[in-house]
Amino acid sequence: MLEEKSAIRVSLFSAMNNSRPSSLNLQAMARQVMLAHGFEPDFPPGTQQQLADISAHPPQLAPTDKVRDLRGLLWSSIDNDTSRDLDQIEAAERLPNGDIKVMVGIADVDAFVGKDTPIDQHAAKETTTVYTGIINFSMLPEELSTGASSLLENVDRPGVVIEFVVNINAGGSISSSDVYRAIVRNKAQLTYGAVGTWLEGTAAAPPKVAASSELQAQLKLQDEVAQALRKLRYEHGALNIDTSEVHPVVLNQQVVDVVKQEKNRATELIEDFMIAANGVVARLLEKVSSLRRIVKTPAHWDGIVRLAAAQGETLPAQADSKALNDFLLKRKAADPDHFADLSLATIKLIGPGEYVLERPGDPEQGHFGLAVQDYTHSTAPNRRFADVVTQRLIKSLLDGKPGPYSDDELAGIAANCTQKEDAARKVEREMSKRLAAVAMSHRVGETFDAIVTGVTPKGTFVRVLQPHIEGLLAQGAQGLHVGDKILAKLTRTDVQRGYIDFAKA
Q1: Taking a C-beta distance cutoff of 8 angstroms, is the pair 469, 500 a contact?
Q2: pTM for the predicted model, two decimal places
Q3: Per-residue pLDDT tens digits for 407-431
Q4: Do both 468 and 330 map to the same domain?
Q5: Which of 111, 157, 252, 496 has the fewest CB atoms within 10 Å, i.e. is most exposed?
Q6: Overall number of domains in the chain
C-alpha cells in the first residue's frame, strides 16, 4: 500500500474571518480529488512481495559487452529542490573539432520492474505520478521511484544513455547520436534555483559547484550547448510560452504562501537536453511500432489569428509556428504583465498534447509547440508509464529481440496515458486552487495589484500579480474588460471549493 505521510492539519480562518479556526486535512482532500478523477492511489496486493524480491535480487551492476561502465564521468542531475524521483543525469564533452557530445543518462526502471508484474500493472493503470503540492501520488512505489531506481547522488545505478553530438559551428544541429545501456553514478545532485541563478550571474555558485572547478566547467559546457539547441529550435518555430507554475510554500507543516516557479537557465538546460534526447529516441524507433508524443497543428488556428489581431498583430491564414513565436516574443517584450494570460489563451487554442501509436511508414504527426517532427517520451520512467514502455522498446531493439508490445497494446497504452494525463492536470489544478485559498486565508482584507483575466457569464476573474493567484471579482466588476489593471481587495476564501473572492478596491 502507498504509505502516505502523516496528515497535515492546517488551521484556517472561516469565510467570515472570525477567530474560530476550522481544521482541514489537505492530504485527505487530495486523495478524494484523486479518486474523483479516476485514479487508484493504493498499490495492489503483491506489491510488497515484489519489492522484497527486488531487494533480494537487485539488477546486476557489472559491465558487459552490451553494458558500458560510465561511472567515471562527471554526471550531475538538476531538478526541483525537493525532488527524490530522479530520472536523468547529464554529462558533456567538447570534441577535438569543437563539437560537443552530450550524454543523458536515464534511470533503467525496467531493470527493476518487469512487464505485467503487479507494480507494472498498477503503473499501466495510473500512468503518471501526480503532484498535488501537499502529497505526491507516485506511479511506482516510493521505495523504487525515490529509492532503488532513482539516480540519487553517489550510488551506482543501471541506466540507458542517450548520446548526441551537437555541431556548435553549424548552429546547434545534431550530427550523430547513439543509445546504449550503461552503469552510471550521479556525482552531484543539484537544484534548478541554485544552478540557474549562478549560470545567469545573479548569485554565487551553490556549495557543490563552488567546491569543484571541474563541475563548474562541466555545467557551463552543458549550458553552452543547451543554448545552441534552444536557439535552433526557436529559429525553426518552437514556441516561447509562459508555462510557469505556482507552488505552495510549506513551513512547519502549514501552507504559508504560494510562489510562481520561474524558468531560468537551469530549467532551460534540462528542457533542451530532454527535447533533444527524446528526438534521438524517436528516430531510433522509426523502424518499429512505438509511442509518439504529439501536438497537432492547431485546428483552431483562426482563433489564434483573431487573438493576434486583438493585439494589433497579423498572423498568416495558415498555421505557422515560426510566425506565432515571433508574435509571442514581441508581445512578451511589449507587455510582460499580460504574457502569462496570452500564453494560456494560446495553449488552449493549440490544444493539448497526446500519445499515439506510430507504426513504421506512418506519416509523422510532429509536435507543433516544439517545432519537431520526431518526438516521444523516454526521459522520465520513474514518473511516466509511457517512458517505461519506450524504455522496453529501446532495450528490445538494442538486443535484437521482438518488441514486447503488440500494436493494439501500444494503441491502448497511448489512449490511457493521454486520458490520465488530462485527469492529472485537473487534479493538480484543483489542489492548486485549494492550496492558494489556504495560503491567502490569513490575508482577507488586504489589497493587491491585479489584472482582469476573464469576463464570462460565470463572472469576472482577476489575477493578482504578487502572489501569483487568481480569483473571482465578486464585487465591482461592472464595466471592466480583459487586461484592465485594478486594485483588488481579498474578501473571502473557501478552501473546500478552492474559491478566492475579491472586490474592486
Answers
A1: yes
A2: 0.89
A3: 999 999 999 999 999 999 999 999 9
A4: no
A5: 252
A6: 3
